[in-house]
Structure to design on (248 residues):
């Protein structure tokens, strides 16, 4: 007669077969509830022998030191800029000029124009000279009661008459759409050399006389019909956020 399984043994055998699945479900629930913290700890323990050593720590410290020195340099440059702006504002107030903040400028016309936050209500008029920290940057092109648009010296084709105080020669400063301008001379021998100061003409009626504009960077003496020089503006128009308008 064949042996038969007792009901108790059959029940335990069924539970034994379900045990792996129950453990798997319980493990998944633990991982779900702990958000994988156990795996993270296990990975940290297993990977500890491969963690970066002292060399990696030195690299990190060097990067932190470089960041701190860079931040200090940026702060020093910002302080110098603010001191220059304060000096410009004080000089302008003493001379009766109008201080105005640059409120907007177009990326397409970066070298052509900028917008000021003051206008005709503050006495600003068309063709007034606009000065930045260090020298002339442009002239007022149009005015509304509350704003004014500046045409920069760097705008392509913008021309003003200037002269070189050292050689006492006159020339025509022409914008080229970038940070450097062309200085065209009438004389074939203008006696010009790199480093010479360029200023507004003392006989000018459209601009205030003897205002610094730029410095000669290079000279093309072979240009026809007369030499042509490259001029770097003293007041960098790409970094201006505050100006003085010299009203007439």
């Amino acid at each position: 007669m064949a042996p038969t399984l007792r009901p108790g043994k059959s029940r335990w055998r069924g539970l034994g077969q379900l045990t792996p699945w129950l453990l798997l479900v319980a493990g998944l629930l633990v991982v779900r509830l702990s958000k994988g913290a156990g795996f993270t700890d296990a990975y940290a323990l297993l990977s500890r022998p491969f963690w970066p050593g002292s060399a990696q720590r030195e690299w990190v410290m060097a990067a932190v030191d470089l960041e701190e020195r860079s931040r200090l340099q940026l702060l020093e440059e910002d302080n110098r800029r603010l001191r220059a702006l304060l000096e410009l504002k004080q000089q302008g107030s003493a001379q009766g000029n109008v201080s105005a903040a640059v409120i907007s400028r177009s990326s397409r016309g970066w070298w052509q124009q900028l917008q000021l936050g003051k206008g005709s209500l503050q006495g600003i008029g068309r063709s007034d000279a606009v000065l930045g920290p260090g020298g002339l940057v442009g002239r007022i092109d149009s005015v509304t009661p509350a704003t004014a648009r500046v045409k920069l010296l760097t705008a392509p084709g913008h021309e003003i008459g200037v002269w070189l105080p050292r050689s006492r020669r006159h020339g025509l400063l022409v914008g080229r759409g970038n940070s450097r301008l062309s200085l065209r001379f009438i004389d074939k021998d203008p006696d010009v050399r790199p480093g010479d100061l360029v200023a507004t003409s003392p006989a000018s009626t459209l601009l205030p006389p003897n205002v610094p504009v730029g410095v000669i960077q290079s000279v093309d003496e072979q240009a026809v019909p007369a030499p042509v020089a490259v001029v770097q503006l003293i007041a960098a128009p790409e970094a201006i956020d505050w100006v003085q308008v010299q009203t007439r």
Observations:
- Residues 55-96 form one domain.
- The longest helix spans residues 54-95.
- The chain has a mean pLDDT of 80.
